[in-house]
Amino acid sequence: MPDADLDQAADALVGAGYGSAGERCMAISVAVAVGDVGDELVAKIAERVKKLRIKDGMEPDADMGPVVTETHRQKILGYIEQGIASGAKLVCDGRRHTVPGRDKGFYLARRCSITPSRTCRSTARRSSDRC
């Protein structure tokens, strides 16, 4: 909504989409901005998403760890490619993220994209795509 507190909205959206490493079935994958606040909201979300710490999930300061299998990682990568092919603009791209010392982990860093049209299935994909 045009009169929303965008900082509060961005915090809530990042928590809802990336909390629990995005591995919960109730994690959001889409947010719809009403009015002309979309660009500002996307910028605020991207700023927060880029600060997420993706590393070994056993480290106490990790915000996100790896996804569960390589098969799941490939499925997520497929969703990202499908979104791009449908016109989504990738704002945060974590497809090539690596974690030093964890070369065999199934890591993807934070990802978010925006879709100006209604033809794309989702505006943001995280690791909860298996739900």
Description:
The chain is mainly alpha-helical. It has helices at about 5-20, 40-50, 70-85; strands spanning about 90, 110-115. It is built from three helices and two strands. It has a two-stranded antiparallel ribbon. Helix 1 (about 5-20) packs across helix 2 (about 40-50). The chain is globular, with a radius of gyration of 14 Å.
Identify low-pLDDT runs. 117-131
Give the SSE string: HHHEE
Q: What number is the mean pLDDT? A: 79
- The oligomeric status of these chains comes to single chain
Strand content: 5-15%
Q: For the report, how would you describe the main beta sheet?
A: 2 strands, antiparallel
Strand order of the largest sheet: 1-2
Structural class label:
mainly alpha
Report how far the terminal alpha carbons are from each other. 28 Å
Shape summary: globular
Query: How many E strands?
Result: 2
Helix content: 25-40%
State Rg.
Answer: 14 Å
**Number of DSSP helical runs:** 3
Key terms:
single chain; 131 residues; mainly alpha; 3 helices; 2 strands; 31% helix; 5% strand; disordered C terminus
